[in-house]
Amino acid sequence: MSHTFNGPENIHSQAKAALDDPQLRQNFRGAMDYLQDKRRSAFADPDEESKIRELSEAIRQRCLSKLPELLELLDANCSRNGMVVHWAQDETEANEIIANIAQQHQAKTIVKGKSMVSEEIELNHEMAKLGIECLESDMGEYIVQLDGDKPSHIIMPAIHKNKQEVSDTFEAHLDDFTPTVDVDELIQTGRTRLRQKFHDADIGLSGVNFAVAETGTLCLVENEGNGRMCTTVPKVHIAITGIEKVVEFLSDVPPLYSALTRSATGQAITTYFNMISSPRKSGELDGPLELHLVLLDNGRTQAFQDEEMRKTLQCIRCGACMNHCPVYTRIGGHAYGTVYPGPIGKIISPHLMGLEKTKELVTASSLCGACGEVCPVRIPIPEMLQRLRTEAKNPPKPDAIAIEGQASASSTLESLAMKGFAFAATHPKLYHTGSWSATKLRGLMPNKIGPWTQCRTSPKLASNTLHQLIKARNKRAGGES
Amino acid sequence: MSSANHISAKNAILAKLRDAKARAIPKETLGYPVWQSHDNELIKQRFIAGLLASHAEVSCVNASEIPKTLARVLNSKGCEKVIVGDANAEQGSGEFFPAILEGAHRIEVTQFDCEFEALKTSLFTEFDAGITHCLGGIADTGTLVLWPDIAEPRTLSLIPPCHIALIKRSTIVSNFAQMMTLQAWQEKMPTNIVLVSGPSKTADIQQTLAYGAHGPSQLVVILVEDR
Amino acid sequence: MRVYPAKPKTVYLYGTCLVDMFDPEAGLDAISLLEQQGLEVIFIEKQTCCGQPAYSSGYTKEAKSVAQSQMALFDEPWPVIVLSGSCGGMMHHHYRRLFQGDSALAKVEQFCERVFELTEFLVNVCRIKLEDKGEQTSVVMHTSCAARREMNVHVTATELLGQLDRVTLKEQAYESECCGFGGTFAVRHPNISQAMVEDKTRHLSETKAALLVSADWGCLLNINGAFEYQGHSMQGRHLASFLLERTGGK
């Protein structure tokens, strides 16, 4: 089944469709149970876990606090190492940069390692318009691309499918494929076909997990080896990353890397950690001859403006927040209609797409806090959601810059209701008359009250309020004395 | 895109960031809780256990046993053609080249001594294994640290379906952070460093682990006693 | 970890708006429990609601005015005992955030430090020892997300039940998962909320426990309403009422 990707405005209908699909529900629940277990065993010692999270948060906050300086240092050091550094304010600029590089080399094919930023700029789609084929090489991304679909999870893109569904996808799109539910055979199928692509591709494209300012080094985390293939075999390597991924020191990398892999998949370490500091140097025999780094803003500077929302940029893209989210577990990644799904997607997407499109997204949380509890860099995701809800309802504070889509969810009716609530709650007499009458008139409570009663009976008011019972109790006590 | 655009994008992004007037936070003084030991035996044991857990094979040998061990490994894997680094390269790590060549003398050995492009197709299709040295090892996670150079290019450990790595026991340290600090990596980052912990793998299909995703499906580590 | 004060002589009770309207008996029972500990319990008549509905919907300014009015009611330096982890989390944790950058912050923080959820106060300040006088039974407990993650009081609620000799505590699958209430979330995203509460009620009923208890009426409105809708007999009670009943205070 291919999922149409309509956008976050349609989260209600997209969520409903996902909730009504028992196979999808089972695939996600199974996968999330597995990933939660893995993380739990990777952080067996709670004291160690809290120290790692505290350190990782401190590193990310320090690096963000010096972001403009570190980006300039990164640019200078990468350039000195022989890379070509590009800056892009938005997806259009990023796609133009990549298209230009491709056209300079008359490139027909780009083989891609996993890169959520490339999803963000819709690179595949934009390059296809120019006759350049982008081929995903991460196994999950490959499956998703065959389907004409999008990733449903940032680190496990095909998590919405079970092995039978993967076999069905291969059968529909690959020649000479014999259906199987043997996972080794399925992987071998992908391996065989993709090795030829690594061999043939003109350009390799990758994301970046950490960009080290001190040394001008790009670090890539992976298990499959496709990232190494993309960054080593083609003559040109393009790395694209959000501007927030920069770290100050090389020594910042080991703790962040450990926090990342343990939080993401519960691994102590991934199979490969690839540290790239330059293109092929004179005398060296392999590696790309040209290496480009594209630094993308795309709304990140907006999140950076505000000290509280800046915390959004601490993210190291482990996916633990979605793995532990009761909403994500039930509706899966596609229903969000955003490149980044789950809790982190809800707080990043408003900066990438504006609050107008994402105002329903920021309300799609019970603020249960499961995400914040596992975040390796301790982003207070529920507080960010509360903040974004506020920005969606209200004009900016006098001294603050409006964020895109500011106040787009403001509703006169709701606002009146909330003002009314606040008025009553700050005027006890009025409030207590209200609650008193509610309990007295409880017989009038309707059986159906909006969506609440689609799966619940309406709440049963008591016959007296606590205020009245205490008054009566005090009177009795007074009378007795 | 013209360079004028490039400068304007850079300036615009930096200007927005500077506008926020973020206050620089000084370097934190928090400790990093990570596995560490001064006991060489424990270090060795943890290194081996980590590698075995990530599906690598490990043989511990004395330097004099390298040729016969390698011959046994190549035979057991059914290797007929292998690729090794350039034994005659002027620079680069190559301490065990004589032993490697001796161990592989019964089969066809190619030395990586020309530009990648000339060897590319055969790397993808012909060689059964690539053999490399290692810069060091990390006990904490059972990790090989490869520092490819002119003598041993990056693709040796990547494209052939089996990677055979030789590592000296004395080069194994407790953890990643320690190795970086001891060797002051920040002063001399090479073109590429790769940490390898097992053969390539994926769990992208229904969380089922499968080895041999895109890189080598087998990793054989020959741990050379030199203490 | 929070540092707890010595046991005081007098405390304030914060009943919460939901207990006020839906389960006032639980409020009286909490008072009895506290009085059994030798405490004088003051109930300020003018208290209304902690302001969470406005806060979580993004009406920060309105929430702040409610917070201000509530804090003003509790002048004396006595602990404020809250009958819900969720409202406790609002008053202990989020009031601070509402007043970030405000000149009143220091005073607000002093108030926040005085806010305790009932079970944590009974265990960590009163060092209560319960004597179980009831028949052998089994219960399952639902802890609200705020109680667990903002207040860390699932530990103290569990400890209280553990003190009851003839009560077996059953553990439900996905114990720490949200029930799907989340205030306005339940009506704004009814389908997602429904999926959550249906799973929650299933996991609770699968324990075959005789009783359901919780120290949060928000979750209970949701869970009890769903159980009744499904025609299931399980109906959760406030933990305060259950504890008082077991110790013969009722």
UniProtKB/TrEMBL annotation, chain A:
Tell me any Pfam family this protein matches. LUD_dom
- Region Disordered, residue ranges: 1-22
Task: Quote the SUPFAM superfamilies the UniProt record gives.
Answer: alpha-helical ferredoxin, NagB/RpiA/CoA transferase-like
Does the keyword Iron-sulfur feature in the UniProt annotation? yes
For this UniProt record, the keywords arranged alphabetically read as follows: 4Fe-4S, Electron transport, Iron, Iron-sulfur, Metal-binding, Repeat, Transport
Which domain of life, per UniProt?
Answer: Bacteria
Bias (Polar residues):
1-13
Per UniProt, residues of the 4Fe-4S ferredoxin-type domain are 305-334
User: What name does this protein carry?
Assistant: Iron-sulfur cluster-binding protein
Q: Which organism is it from?
A: Shewanella nanhaiensis
TrEMBL record, chain B:
InterPro entries recorded for this chain?
Answer: FTHF_cligase-like_sf, LUD_dom, NagB/RpiA_transferase-like
Looking at the record, the residues that make up the LUD domain are 45-224
One Pfam family this sequence matches: LUD_dom
- Recorded superkingdom: Bacteria
UniProt protein name: Lactate utilization protein C
Tell me what organism the protein belongs to: Shewanella nanhaiensis
Its organism's taxonomic lineage begins at: Bacteria, Pseudomonadati, Pseudomonadota, Gammaproteobacteria, Alteromonadales
From TrEMBL, chain C:
List where the protein spans the membrane.
none
Source superkingdom: Bacteria
> Sorted alphabetically, which InterPro entries does this protein's record hold?
Cys_rich_dom
User: Coiled-coil annotation: which residues?
Assistant: none
Per the database record, which ranges form the Cysteine-rich domain?
13-91, 139-223
Q: Which Pfam families match?
A: CCG
What is this protein's name?
(Fe-S)-binding protein
Protein source organism = Shewanella nanhaiensis
